[in-house]
Design goal:
Elements lengths: L7 E5 L1 H4 L11 H12 L5 E5 L2 H10 L8 H24 L4 E3 L6 E4 L2 E5 L2 H8 L3 E5 L1 E5 L3 E5 L1 H12 L3 E6 L14 E2 L1 H7 L14 H16 L3 E5 L5 H6 L6 E3 L6
Helix pairs in contact: 2-4, 3-4, 6-8
Bound molecules: adenosine-5'-triphosphate and magnesium ion (MG).
Adenosine-5'-triphosphate binds next to helix 1 and helix 8.
């Protein structure tokens, strides 16, 4: 049994837990259960953030939530991602993980799409009392735009910085950030990024928050401002979540400096 004293942040990519090619919310049931089992083998404190996948991006695109304020679209998208959060939380609890959904719409305000403030006292108390907060990509109110789409990829580094958490991993459906030959890059630093960014794109499916490039940019920004190293790895492959949670360096490492 592994017991980590430092909390970990794990993101479950929407492309792993949902069928992102679908035009309505569809859960990848078998993957979600496998992931819940892997997570249950970890005994440390953790925060889970999951992507919206086909429960969010499909509706965000339909109602053009990245372009304009549409109250009906806000509600339909929020209700849909809440359903996915409930499925994730149910699966985790079935495997004995005391997971609780924390919907960003209820605790976050953005300004022009960036988090301005998030209520964190509940999350801190959950960690203290060994509950596992589960946040997710959501629509949230925005001081300038009315509402905006908030990616799980932005929530992860925000929580890391605010809560002083230094181990974070984004599990997605590729073996990491792939180079021009489709091989995972071992490491991306701010310096190397300039040469590599032409190989990194948006999502292959519907995704209004920047796909792989969005992820890398969020994590690089964190590495520059907080010297935190994070990992992008394939959560679609059995055992990878286990390996990440147990401290292995896996997939692509996003770090402030080159590893010596
Ligand atoms: N260089 C690259 N390496 C890996 N994936 C890439 C690259 N360039 C573009 N992509 C695309 O980015 C996708 C990953 O981003 P995406 O936002 O869809 O995943 P996710 O985080 O699992 O989903 P969600 O945003 O719903 O949580 C990959 O599945 C792939 O289609
Ligand atoms: Mg995405």
């Amino acid at each position: 049994m592994i017991v980590s004293t430092e909390p970990v942040i794990l993101k479950l990519g929407g492309s792993v837990i949902t069928d992102k090619g679908a035009d309505e919310g569809i859960v990848r049931e078998a993957d979600l259960l496998r992931i819940a089992r892997e997570v249950s083998e970890f005994r440390g404190k953790m925060i889970i953030v999951h992507g919206a996948g086909s429960f969010g991006h499909t509706y965000a695109k339909k109602y053009r939530l990245d372009m304009n304020f549409d109250p009906e679209g806000v509600i339909i998208t929020h209700e849909s991602v809440k359903k996915l959060a409930s499925r994730v939380v149910d699966s985790l609890n079935r495997f004995g993980i005391r997971a609780v959904a924390v919907h960003p719409m209820g605790c976050t305000v953005c300004r022009k799409g960036r988090i301005e403030s998030m209520y964190l006292d509940n999350i801190k108390l959950m960690l203290k009392n060994n509950l596992v907060p589960v946040l997710h990509g959501d629509v949230v109110m925005d001081l300038e735009l009315g509402a905006c789409v908030l990616s799980g990829d932005q929530i992860v580094p925000y929580l890391a910085k605010e809560l002083g958490i230094t181990r974070l991993g984004l599990g997605s459906a590729e073996d990491g950030v792939l180079d021009k030959d489709g091989k995972p890059l071992p490491e991306i630093t701010p310096e190397k990024f300039e040469n590599l960014k032409r190989y990194i794109g948006g999502s292959g499916s519907t995704d209004v928050t920047g796909g792989m490039l969005g992820k890398v940019q969020e994590l690089l920004e964190l590495s520059k401002t907080s010297c935190i190293t994070s990992y992008i790895f394939n959560a679609g492959k059995a055992d990878n979540i286990n390996r990440f949670l147990n401290g292995e360096s896996i997939g692509t490492r996003i770090s402030p400096d080159e590893r010596v």
